Amino acid sequence: MKTALTSSSIIKKSLQMLACSACLLMPLASQAERLKDLTSVQGVRQNQLIGYGLVVGLDGSGDQTTQTPFTVQSVISMMQQMGINLPQGTNLQLKNVAAVMVTSSLPAFAQPGQTLDITVSSMGNAKSLRGGTLLMTPLKGADGQIYGMAQGNVVVGGAGAAANGSKAQINHLSVGRISAGATVERAVATTLGQGDVIFLELKESDFSTASRVVDAVNARFGPQTAAAQDGRVIRVRAPASNDERVSFLGALESINVTPAQVSAKVIMNARTGSVVMNQAVTLDACAVSHGNLSVTINTQPVISQPAPFSGGQTVVAQQSQIEISKEPGKVILLKNSTSLADVVKALNSIGATPQDLLAILQAMKASGSLRAELEII
């Protein structure tokens, strides 16, 4: 009896291991994502701010005033506003001042008194902004109104080293940041709290994903709560009270939705030759010739006959293969494959340049063999 129990436990463990192995071999389903990662609430957005200012206190690394006259004009204008009038024809030789552009983003629901991080970028030919101080600079929005004021010490990251008279510099010294360097002076009005309807916008237009979002929202909050207007915008009924609306939006953003599979897309960097595919992209039959490179993709029938008197049937299957050749005489043959990834890998192995790869992919796309969106960056 003890032996039987031991054998039974061994069989049970073996079945469990087989089940686990089968689960690992099965293709994984699309992972559910939070609604807040797939959509944004219409009207809840950032607003870009920009301003022009001066950085002073540089250690001789400022703008060369002979080549950047706007820096001198800015200094003279600032001094006149402070009640200092320079004699006519004064030639200022400034080495510790740099004209800069100040940029930042005003987040949604920002209120006066809050602080923002800002980026300070040189406009002229300043060698470095390290150690400089940004003077009070108004930050304006697209409507020309002032929404913030910036000022503070510029922090420029970078490592410098000198040995045997030679210098090495890492990082870009003409751009710096000021943490909490701007103060919000004006709030941007929002329409989020008006009416009993909000609109969700998918970050990527997709009719299938929009339909799944509607189903998930209605399943969570009841029928007729959400309705899709098109492949991007979803209309959602929300409470009219601000307090209830905030709680409703918090629960809405936490809903898990499994997005639809995106369309096939191939992205290529023409400078580096990097190729990225968002899913398994296959190729149809084609023949491409580019200089001393040639790529041929075709299918051949493979006939499988049963043994005599076995009662089986003859089966005809299509076998795909890719042939890539480069003069003189270097040939790569890939059987049972029409994957673009295999083609790119083989082309790289025989020394194809990024320009060669770009020309071949564009030819495949034009011929209809590459059934995916091709984006060149």
From TrEMBL:
Q: Which GO terms describe its biological process?
A: bacterial-type flagellum-dependent cell motility
Top-level taxon:
Bacteria
GO CC annotations, alphabetized: bacterial-type flagellum basal body, distal rod, P ring; outer membrane-bounded periplasmic space
User: Molecular function terms in GO for this entry?
Assistant: structural molecule activity
Give the UniProt subcellular location, in the record's own words.
Periplasm; Bacterial flagellum basal body
Q: Signal peptide location in the record?
A: 1-32
Tell me yes or no: is Nucleus among this UniProt entry's keywords. no
Key words of the record:
Bacterial flagellum, Cell projection, Cilium, Flagellum, Periplasm, Signal
**Which function does this protein serve?**
Assembles around the rod to form the L-ring and probably protects the motor/basal body from shearing forces during rotation.
> Quaternary form?
The basal body constitutes a major portion of the flagellar organelle and consists of four rings (L,P,S, and M) mounted on a central rod.
What NCBIfam families does the entry give?
Answer: PRK05303.1
Family membership noted in the UniProt record: Belongs to the FlgI family.
**Name the UniProt record assigns to this protein:** Flagellar P-ring protein
